[in-house]
Amino acid sequence: MKIKIKSESGYLPSYETDGSAGMDLRASLKEDVLLEPGKRSLVPTGLFIELPKGYEAQVRARSGLAVKQGIGLVNGIGTIDSDYRGEIKVPLINWGEEPFVIRDGDRIAQMVVAKYERIVWEEADHLTDTGRGSGGFGHTGI
To answer: Are 60 and 112 in contact (CB under 8 A)?
Structure first.
């Protein structure tokens, strides 16, 4: 699948291994960003994409940064819609205990392109019964 992309940073999202689902996104910065513990920053990537209708791009945390440094995404997973044409920016948060410096070109997040379906709600008075029923969080035990 080919997707149009404009890069003002000189970086393109890239798969690090043959089996990678996510492409690494890199920071596009004129100067370093110091992310203190508990603080947030919207980090630019210099990337603009044109997704086809029926696709979204999911921006996710990099597991290595999350485990080693406590760096994650403020909103867990961010969605880039097919009609968005602005710059991709990553809302990072420092959940860690130490300040974290983000430099130009640092891999800060990953992006997964996924197909989705749009639905139409069909209102009903009753839903089909299942074995689970209305059992919620933790209802199956440990």
So the answer is: yes
Instruction: Name the pTM for this structure.
Output: 0.88
Alpha helix positions (H), 12-120: 63-69
CA pair distance 21, 19, nearest whole angstrom:
6
3-state secondary structure 51-77: CCCCEEEEEECCHHHHHHHCEEECCCC
Q: Contact at 8 Å (CB) between 5 and 48? A: yes
Cα-to-chain-centroid distance, residue 27: 14
pLDDT digits (tens, 9 = 90+) for 73-84: 999 999 999 999
Contact between residue 54 and residue 116 where contact means Cβ atoms under 8 Å apart: yes
Cα 125 from Cα 85, distance rounded (Å) = 41
Return d(Cα 76, Cα 43) in angstroms, integer.
15
Q: What is the pLDDT averaged over residues 39-53?
A: 98
Mean pLDDT score of the chain, rounded to an integer? Answer: 95
Token duo for residue 141: 């035990």
